[in-house]
Fold:
Amino acid sequence: MANTRIVVPGELLSSKQLKLRGTYPSKDGTRAAVIGIYNEEEEKFVPLKGSYVPTVGDKVVAVVTEEKVIGYGVDIFTPYKALLPSRMTRLRLSPNDIIESEIIEVNEVKDIILGRPRVLRGGRVTFISPTKVPRAIGKKNSMIQLLQTGTGCEIVIGKNGVVWVRGKNEQLAIDALMKIEREAHIAGLTDRIQSWLMSQQR
Amino acid sequence: MGGNNGMQLIINGKRLDGRAVDELREIKMFAGILNKADGSGYIEWGRNKVLAAVYGPREVVPKHETDPYRAVVRARYLMAPFSTLEEHGRGGPNRRSIEISKVVREVFENVIISENYPKTAIDIFIEILEGHGSTRCVGINAASLALATAGIPLRDIPVAVSVGKIDGTIAVDMAKEEDNFGESDVAVAIAPNSGDILLLQMDGKLTREEVSRAFDLIYNAAKEISAKQIAALKALYSAQKENIEEREEENKEENISSFSDVPLSSEISQSQLQPASQTTSEDMGEMPNEPNA
Structure:
């Protein structure tokens, strides 16, 4: 992990004007806006904190809150409410159903339209920080596959940081996710989780 | 500003608490100590004890306060009923705390990149648990830590410090007696990277020369405070990192591949709260690291 450093808001990252999430352009270059890890060589910035910003194409795990004439009101755990229109689905949903869905549309005032829902029955729901979602999924799904084979659970991780777990060892999977959240910023995460899962199964 | 009232505030070049005129009180800062808040900060600054928490971005209630273009920032500064010797009534906001809440809000409105979160609210709560002069400045510093740990995009981490005139001399970081019996008291908040002034409130009178001397002291003190804030924020992550590295080495020696006893971030910050009683923490051998070393 050479050439990476933890940066705090307002810290100068580069004298160049870079377009990176979690940064802002200033007169003298680019500065960090949130706590994160900056890689000087590759000019990459990874935020360590921050809330989820709904983006088109993201898969989210959400809870149906109400049934409306035009569709379903859905809580995607952001400050903004989402709508799943009836035309997007043939499913009959009811409040408190947990669904996995894709964000189809986000407009300027953050009205969110969802589509392609899949009902997740049974199981448990847990929350991780949205900034840690890429680490929980891993490169080419390596981490989530490790978790699924290691715990024998079905796991769905939403980009909004909501995770749905179903299987025989749900608590182990949730503990592993919490461990990922705590240690996501430290190198060698997948190996560490693998050995941890092995030790837990003994 | 009671005037001098015959109280001598500088004796042999030293102030009442033994400080030089350009010296700050002892400062300890901790970030991320509350579990349920999105971000939090706690500062012990001399005899001040201040806790700040940040929630958000979240839905705006009541809804008519919503701004469709940016997040609304709301701040509440409150002194606990037990925070000073004077009466603070039944708690809750009063004339003084409503005014301070307003100026604190304006400090943070200028540094939060609120356009990223339209139609939301960011709530800042500053609780003065124990007050001993310059509480609004300490409160702003604590709230800065809380905002940074909450992951709210900031252009800069605001730093606040007070200056004043005691016994005809300009001095930085006013304690309670100096505030009450000195000739002038100025609370200033600045953005350390750009040098912008975010808050400037003056009580009493100062000449032009005295103001420029005061600002020299402020910018010097701000560097020191800013470094402490950054150290407290980085300690959140380095503490965990060192802890895991240490345990990895231990485990290599003992040939065990279990890390299940790595403490939660909350537990780490709890143990970080112990440097006041360093002997005990050393005895326990559980000190992750000293954030303000």
Q: What stands out?
A: The first helix of chain A runs from residue 133 to 137.
